[in-house]
Every structure is written in structure tokens, then in C-alpha cells.
């Protein structure tokens, strides 16, 4: 009798040699099998960590219906607009590195009560602590910060009501939290504006249950307001710039990415409203010929971003190209990416 094994009749994508070493087309076709349909006409909202900026530019450049709630690039040059966080995401929320920031934004935009206004100062100028990089030179007064935030949240509310799918890129588990309000911040005070005081902020390194709960609450908030928006999760392949955990940056990065990827895996298996696209695997592993990193070993290379978007499109369209050429998706280098985390390098001794 011939011995049998549960692995005996598995398809090519189940084995390392046929799926990775030999790169069979059958295996690549199954790298990403969507749970829900998207087309070029599907209203997409982009948000997340710095890598999400690459996704936003590439999808917009390839003709996808990427929503823009606070447009400016038709009025001023693209470089100038992006300096003020116009056109890098679907709205000017800046980088949402953590699931907690994502949850906060959705709750504020759809809730009846605005979040507490957190204002930082620098050289006599005023900054919105929840998006300090959107106005590089700050505002004249704290009242101007409040007015701008109210306008922004109104725009985000309209954006959420339009979006059919949110493409959200998870970047970090590490976060600084305002001690008085419990609000998650995109960066520690003292990095862009404000003053660091160890009594005013709390360092958090979110756990698997916390990240999972934040994403589920974000989904529940959408549903409570009658929105059936799907959520496409990705994990940023960009490693941490710095860690406040006291551990080596390498192990800190592995912890963050492992937690985020594990949460995505659970939600894909258990929740019809979530899907996961493997940007992290495409850029960081040899799954399609990578890794695809720029010389700084942080930012994805233009080739890598082309491959990510090409495989994303191929999963939804029969006639999609394998990759989008660089001149179409306008992916820039690290200097073109608006990222508070990069600024942490300036504090290295």
C-alpha cells in the first residue's frame, strides 16, 4: 500500500520550491486571492503609515478611483502640495502609524463629540498634535488649529461616507500616548513641535489583542453609522527608524511587524469585512524575486512598488500589466515621503 500524506496532492503554491524557487505562474496566481471584488471604479480611501503614500501615488497614477477629500494638487505644484500633506493620502490626516490612530480618526469623524484638541507650540507657532506635519510652519493661533481640525474632520466624514473600500497600511505597534486624554500621537512631543515631558506622555507598545480590538472597533463604528465599507489591510515593509523599548531595533521591528501581520491573518480568516494584501511579503522576502529595498534598506525600491501595484491590479483585472512603469506611478525616493518617523534619526547620538 502506498503511504499517503496530507501534503501529497497540494497545489504548487503550497511548496517553497515550486512557489518561490521555480516561481511557477500557477503559484504566483495564488499569492493573493481577493475576498471581495474591486474595479477601477471602486471608491478607494487610502490611509496608514509612510508606505501607504507609495500605495496612494501608484494606484492614483494607474487610474484607480482613489478618493481625494481635500484636493490641492490641481491648484499648486505637486511637490508644494505634498509638503503640506495634500495628495499623499485621501485626506490630510498625515501618517496613521497605528491601528489606534485609525480607530481614533474614524470615531472622531463619525461621532457626535469631537476629540479633545491637543495643541503643541514651537517658536510661537501652533500645531495640531494629532497631525503635526500637515502645516510645517504651524498656525498663527490655537483657534486656527481648532478651525482647521474641524474642517479636516468634516472632510474625513464625507470621505468615509463615499469610500467603498479603505486600504489601510499598518506600520507600527510603538506609540506615544497623551497622558491626559489617552489619545495616540503620531510622534512624541519634541520631534516636530511641543516639548517632551515624561509626565505628559506615556510610551505604549501595543499588543496583539489591542491591535485586534482597535481594528474591530473601527469596523464596528463604520457599521453603526450604516457604512458597509470593506477594509483592505496591508503591513508596511518599512522597518522602524528608532525604538523606545530599550531593545535592539532589529528585534523591535520584528515584534511590531509580527504582531501586525498576525492580526491581519486572524481578521482575514474570521471576518468577511477584512482582507489582506501581501505588500510586506512582496517587498521583504523572495516571494516574487525580492527583497526590494532602496540602498538605505528602509524604503522600498521603485521596482518593488511597481511589483506590489502590478500584482494588486492583476488580482482584480484579467488584462492588468505585471507591473506599472515608474513614469506612471510617480513613486519618489525617501525625500519625497512625508514621514515623521524619519525625523527620529536626527536625535541619534
Describe what this molecule looks like in 3D:
This protein is α/β, with parallel strands linked by helices and 349 residues long. It has a single domain (42-112, 148-347), classed as Rossmann fold (3-Layer(aba) Sandwich), CATH 3.40.50. Helix content is 36%, strand content 11%. The protein contains eleven helices and nine strands. The protein has a four-stranded parallel β-sheet, sandwiched between helices. A hairpin with a 2-residue loop joins strand 2 (119-122) and strand 3 (125-128). Helix 7 packs across helix 8. The radius of gyration is 20 Å and the shape is globular. Residues 322-335 have low confidence and may be disordered.
Strand and helix layout:
Blueprint: H1 16-21, H2 25-28, E1 44-48, H3 51-61, H4 78-83, H5 99-110, E2 119-122, E3 125-128, H6 142-162, E4 165-170, E5 174-178, E6 184-185, E7 201-205, H7 208-224, E8 230-235, H8 249-270, E9 274-276, H9 279-284, H10 302-316, H11 326-329
Parallel strand pairs: 1-4, 4-8, 8-9
Antiparallel strand pairs: 2-3, 5-6, 5-7
Helix pairs in contact: 5-6, 5-7, 7-8
Amino acid at each position: 500500500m502506498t503511504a499517503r500524506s496530507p501534503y501529497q496532492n497540494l497545489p504548487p503554491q503550497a511548496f517553497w520550491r515550486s512557489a518561490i524557487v521555480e516561481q511557477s505562474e500557477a503559484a504566483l496566481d495564488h499569492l493573493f486571492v481577493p475576498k471581495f471584488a474591486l474595479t477601477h471604479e471602486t471608491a478607494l480611501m487610502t490611509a496608514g503609515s509612510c508606505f501607504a503614500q507609495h500605495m496612494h501615488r501608484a494606484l492614483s497614477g494607474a487610474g484607480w478611483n482613489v478618493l481625494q477629500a481635500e484636493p490641492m494638487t490641481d491648484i499648486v505644484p505637486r511637490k508644494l502640495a505634498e509638503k503640506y500633506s495634500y495628495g499623499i493620502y485621501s485626506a490630510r490626516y498625515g501618517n496613521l502609524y497605528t491601528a489606534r490612530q485609525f480607530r481614533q480618526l474614524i470615531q472622531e469623524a463619525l461621532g457626535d463629540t469631537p476629540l479633545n484638541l491637543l495643541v503643541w507650540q514651537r517658536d510661537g507657532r501652533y500645531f495640531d498634535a494629532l497631525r503635526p506635519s500637515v502645516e510645517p510652519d504651524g498656525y498663527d493661533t490655537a483657534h486656527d488649529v481648532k478651525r482647521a481640525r474641524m474642517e479636516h474632520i468634516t472632510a474625513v466624514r464625507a470621505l468615509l461616507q463615499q469610500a467603498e473600500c479603505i486600504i489601510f497600511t499598518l506600520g507600527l505597534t510603538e506609540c506615544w500616548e497623551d497622558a491626559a486624554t489617552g489619545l495616540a500621537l503620531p510622534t512624541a512631543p519634541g520631534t516636530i513641535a511641543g516639548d517632551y515631558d515624561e509626565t505628559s506622555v506615556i510610551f505604549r507598545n501595543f499588543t496583539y489583542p489591542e491591535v485586534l480590538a482597535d481594528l474591530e472597533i473601527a469596523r464596528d463604528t463604520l457599521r453603526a453609522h450604516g457604512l458597509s465599507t470593506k477594509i483592505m489591510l496591508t503591513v508596511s515593509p518599512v522597518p522602524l527608524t528608532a525604538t523606545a523599548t530599550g531593545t535592539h531595533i532589529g528585534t523591535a521591528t520584528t515584534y511590531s511587524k509580527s504582531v501586525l501581520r498576525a492580526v491581519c491573518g486572524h481578521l482575514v480568516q474570521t471576518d468577511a469585512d477584512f482582507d489582506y494584501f501581501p505588500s510586506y511579503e512582496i517587498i521583504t522576502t523572495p516571494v516574487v524575486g525580492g527583497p526590494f529595498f532602496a540602498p538605505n534598506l528602509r524604503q522600498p525600491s521603485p521596482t518593488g512598488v511597481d511589483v506590489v501595484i502590478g500584482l494588486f491590479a492583476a488580482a482584480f483585472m484579467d488584462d492588468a500589466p505585471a507591473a506599472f512603469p515608474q513614469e506612471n506611478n510617480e513613486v519618489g525616493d525617501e525625500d519625497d515621503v512625508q514621514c515623521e518617523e524619519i525625523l527620529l534619526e536626527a536625535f541619534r547620538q
